[in-house]
Amino acid sequence: MPGRRDLLKATPFASLWSSRSADRPPNVILMIADDLGHGDPGCYGSTLLTPNLDTLATEGVKFNHYVSANPVCSPSRASVLTGRYPTRMGVDRVLFPNDAVGLPQTETTIARMLKPMGYRTQCIGKWHLGDQPQFMPINHGFDDFYGVPYSGDMYPLPLMHNLDVLERPTRTIYLTRKFTEQAVQFLSTVRNSPFFLYMAYTAPHIPLWVNEDWRGKSLHGLYGDTVAEMDWSVGQVLQTLKANGLDNNTMVIFTSDHGPWYQGSPGELKGRKGETWEGGVRVPFLARFPGHIPAGLTVNGTASALDLLPTIAGLTSAPLPGLPVDGIDIWSMMSGAQDAIDRDAILYFDNNHLQCIRFGRWKLHVARYNSPPWGPEPVGGRWNLPLMKPELYDLTADPTESSNVACDNPKVVSDMLARAKDLLNSFPNSVVNDWRDTNALSVVETPDGAPPVKGDPPSQGNA
C-alpha cells in the first residue's frame, strides 16, 4: 500500500503543501462537542441551525463513518488525545470529581507530541480526564488550560485557569461564550509560531444551558438554541483565523465525543450514548484545510477517533509516541486521495468489556454489557449478558442494524472473532480476562456446520 507522502504527491494539493511546509508547519485546531449526535448538524440532514458546521462541510470534508472509541465521555476523550484504546490506559469509565485515577503520565497526548516541534499548545473547555493536578492539561503537554475539569452535570463545577480556580461553581450559561473569547484571544497572539488548539465544548450535554442572547433563537427549543450557540462559536474561530492571516495554514477539525444522550439525534442510526449500537458511537466528523482538503468532499470509508493523533503526526512530521498507537493515518481519505483505507478491525468497548468488532462494512456484536439509563430495570438485577451467539450486521445494506445476518456469513463471523483475538493479545490482563468471561457465557458458531463451541479466549496480554 502506498504511504501517505506518496499519496499526497498524487493529489493536486501536494504542490501547495510542499511550498508551505518548508516555511512553517501547519496549525491544528481540534474542536469536540459533548454528546452531539450524528444526525444533529444540518450537513448530516438535520433541521437544526448549524450554518458554520455546514460551511466546514462545503469547504472541506465530511465523513459518514467516523466512530468514537467509546460511547461515554472520559474514555472517548482519552482516545482522541492519545490514539490509543482507553482500556489500555485504565481510563475505561466516566471519571468523577476527586477520582484518584486519570490520564496516566505515561501517555503521550497530541499536545505533548507537538511541543518538541515548536508548537504552542492550548486547551480550552472540558477536560474530564482527571481533576487531580498530575492529570490536568498542563501536565499533559498543554502550555495553558482554561476551562472545566469535568462534565457540566457534576457539581460544583469550577472554572479554572491552569490549576487555579476562577469560579466555583461557574455560571454555566456563559461557558460557550467564555470559551470562545479565550479561543479568539489565543488565536490573536500566535501569528509567529505553529499552534495546536484543543477546544472541547461542554455543549450540548445536559443539563442544557444557553446564554440569553441565544435563548429562543433557533426555533428548535433549548437543545436547538444550545447547538446554535456552539455553531456560532465555531464561526467565531473561523473568522478569527481569517482576520489574523492564519486561515490557509490551519487545519480545523470538528467532531463529537460520542452519540447523543436524552436529547439530540443519532439520525437513522440505532442507539444513543452509553450503547455500542452505531448511534452511540458514530458521530459527525468535519475537517477544513484550504488548499489541502478539497471542498465538498464526502468520505464513506471507516475512520476512528483513534486516527487523529497518527494523522496529525503525519501532517506535522512529528514522531509517533513510543507506546503502541491503535489508530492509522487517514490523511489520504481527508485529502481525497482515497475513499477508504485497508485497516484492521476496530474494537468497541464498554468499560473493559469488548462489545463489538467493526471491519469494513461488517459489524459483529459479541456482548451488550452497556445499558441505557432510560431502559427498564433488568430481571435479576443484572443488565444485558454476553450474547449467546454473535450478531452480524452489514452496515452498508443495513445501517440501522436491524437484520442479523450471522447465520448467512459464518466465515465472516469467524474471521472477525479471530481478528479480535489477535488484537486483544496486546491488551492488559484485565481486558483479556473480561473477554474470557464473555466467551465462557457465549457460543460461537463454526463456519463448517460443526456443533457450536465455546469461544476461544486469547492468551494473557500486556498494556
Beta-strand level of the residues, as a percent range? 15-25%
CATH class of the largest domain: Alpha Beta
Q: Give, in order, the helices and strands.
A: HHEHEHHEEEEHEHEHEEHHEEEEHHEE
CATH superfamily of the largest domain: Alkaline Phosphatase, subunit A
* Helix content range: 25-40%
Point out poorly predicted stretches. 1-22, 378-383, 444-463
DSSP summary, beta strand count: 16
The CATH level-2 architecture of the largest domain is identified as 3-Layer(aba) Sandwich
> For the terminal residues, how far apart are their CA atoms?
28 Å
Mean pLDDT score: 88
Q: Would you tell me which CATH topology of the largest domain applies?
A: Alkaline Phosphatase, subunit A
Q: Could you say which overall geometry the principal axes of the C-alpha atoms support?
A: globular
Structural class: alpha/beta
Would you summarize the structure shown here?
By secondary structure, this protein is an alpha/beta fold. The chain contains twelve helices and 16 strands.
Describe the secondary-structure layout.
Layout: H1 4-9, H2 14-21, E1 27-33, H3 51-59, E2 61-67, H4 73-82, H5 110-114, E3 120-126, E4 144-148, E5 159-161, E6 164-167, H6 175-187, E7 195-200, H7 221-243, E8 250-256, H8 278-281, E9 285-288, E10 297-304, H9 308-316, H10 331-334, E11 346-350, E12 353-359, E13 362-367, E14 386-394, H11 410-424, H12 429-440, E15 443-444, E16 453-454
